[in-house]
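User: Before I run my own analysis I want an independent prediction to cross-check against. Here's the chain; please return only the structure tokens and, at the end, one sentence I can use as a sanity check.
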Amino acid sequence: MAFKILLHTFRMIFGNFGQALKVSVGPYLILILGYAVMFGALSTMADSTVGVTPLMSIMLVVLLPLSLFVAAWVAVSWHRFILLEEYVGFLPTVKDRPIWPYAAKAILMALILGLIGVLLFFCYYLLALMPLAAGGRESSSLFGVLSAIVFVCAFFLLVVISLRMGPALVATALGKSMTFRDAVEATSKIRGVIWGVALLFALLNAILGFAFELIGSAVPILGIFMSIALNWLTTLLGISILTTIYGHVIEDRPLIS
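Assistant: Structure tokens:
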């Protein structure tokens, strides 16, 4: 079933490729333009009496909310297109869309995941330092290997938790109320499937990243475009996976065979 969910997300994107481009390209071009304007202003003002630190602070204040808004704008528009069949014109509509509530909930989710991550690594290092305190080259080497393994496992666990919590974001995009606890409870019946989805998604990212890296090494100019395409695809895949899980679990929609 995990493979069916991932296959469903691919069909969701490439079966609606024109809408996928309309949902994402315009907002991200606006974001790129915003960054270009701010960096242009920074380079112009760098030689003036204004210090670099205040300028960087201004950039952070302007670009961080803009980045959050654009990411939420794309996600909300895609969720609503797939689940409510709200087609997109030249640009996704902003009026009466819960973009900022979505961004706020995404920030809260990121904070929760960050806290869980900190606790996981704190507990691990607390236990790992005990044999390390005994000293010796073998203990140091073992600690390095275990650190790498635990890092991968902890990251994978956080991905699984995010997929369990993610339907709450989709509900917000649709103007519905759902807590993270509600989302975790609703996805409990497919918890094993979600582990499989997370594993397949991680493997797919690794394979595509490696393949695109080889192409970029051979043809640097082509590599730039491949990197942009990969980032676009993985972003849409992540949003689509949450959309698929919400549609299947919450709305009892069938998966495409």
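Sanity check: The chain has a mean pLDDT of 85.
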